[in-house]
């Protein structure tokens, strides 16, 4: 699969396929922690995010699959076995059409367009996603003419990548296709996701870190607890962040009056 972490599409023993990121990927192990935590948080507030999973990759599989390696320029490095992060593929790969761009006429027909992108904007402001919002559009390959659905993917740069800090910016989190913000009329357009973030309890946040391995949080695993405290404190800063984006030079919400 594409991406700096060099993930692979893997069919697992539950019969589903997952985009798997590995502990010793070319970025860093915290990409896996970010993916698991952010995906669980997104699920918690009802966003259409790819389902996360722990994927156990055995040494036997890697040993019998010599193509499962990292390519680093002219060098090749082995993938280490162990517990990896998996993001569930939306369907059977051979039967599912997946794209990352749609022309305007098809984008407007996406089934969950407003919920996905307005909710994702709230989420990306809260989590300080320092990458552009990544989504995929998908439908069954045999359903010609059917509307696409959208799914949030690639949460690895939430919490400022591996830094676990929050360098906020008014322009951060905006999707480049302004069409997705056409229905924004005011702060109420970001509901119910905004209120759901604000109403999250600390025990709900703590549930989202359950089972995340210390190895995914190196070099300082204890910082995961500090990250949760910071996220809890940021819940009520999201409204102002949205206003700051509205008042930015890009003016992304032309119908907000």
Describe the structure.
With 257 residues, the chain is of the alpha+beta class. It has one domain. 28% of the residues lie in helices and 17% in strands. The chain has a 4-stranded antiparallel sheet. Strands 7-8-9 form a 3-stranded antiparallel sheet. β4 and β5 form a beta hairpin. α4 crosses α8. The longest helix is centred in the N-terminal third of the chain and has 15 residues.
Work out the helicity level.
25-40%
**What would the principal axes of the Cα set say about the shape?**
globular
How many helices? The count is 8
* Sheet having the most strands: 4 strands, antiparallel
Could you tell me the number of beta strands? 9
The N- and C-terminal alpha carbons lie at a distance of 42 Å
Residue stretches low in confidence (pLDDT < 50, at least 5 long) are none
> Mean pLDDT, as a whole number?
96
Structural class: alpha+beta
Kindly report the spatial arrangement of strands forming the biggest sheet: 1-2-6-3
**Into how many domains do the coordinates divide?**
1
Which percent band covers the strand fraction? 15-25%
* SSE series: EEHEHEEEEHHEEHHHH
Roughly how many Å is the radius of gyration? 19 Å
């Amino acid at each position: 699969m594409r991406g700096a972490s060099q993930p692979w599409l893997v069919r697992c023993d539950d019969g589903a396929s997952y985009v798997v990121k590995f502990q010793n990927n070319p970025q860093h192990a915290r990409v896996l922690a970010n993916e698991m935590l952010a995906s669980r948080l997104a699920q918690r507030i009802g966003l259409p995010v790819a389902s996360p999973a722990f994927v156990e990759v055995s040494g036997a599989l890697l040993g019998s699959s010599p193509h499962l390696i990292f390519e680093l320029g002219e060098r090749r490095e082995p993938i280490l076995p162990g517990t990896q992060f998996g993001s569930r593929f939306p369907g059977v790969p051979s039967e599912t059409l997946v794209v990352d761009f749609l022309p305007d006429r098809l984008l407007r027909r996406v089934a969950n367009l407003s919920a996905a992108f307005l909710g994702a904007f709230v989420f990306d402001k809260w989590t300080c996603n320092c990458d552009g919002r990544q989504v995929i559009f998908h439908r069954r390959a045999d359903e010609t003419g059917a509307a696409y659905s959208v799914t949030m993917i690639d949460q690895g740069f939430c919490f400022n990548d591996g830094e676990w800090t929050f360098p906020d910016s008014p322009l951060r989190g905006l999707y480049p296709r302004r069409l997705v913000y056409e229905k924004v009329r005011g702060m109420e357009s970001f509901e119910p996701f905004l209120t759901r973030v604000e109403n999250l309890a600390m025990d709900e946040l703590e549930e989202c870190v359950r089972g995340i391995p210390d190895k995914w949080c190196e070099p300082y695993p204890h910082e995961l607890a500090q990250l949760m405290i910071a996220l809890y404190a940021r819940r009520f800063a999201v409204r102002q962040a949205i206003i700051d984006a509205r008042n930015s030079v890009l003016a992304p919400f032309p119908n907000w009056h």
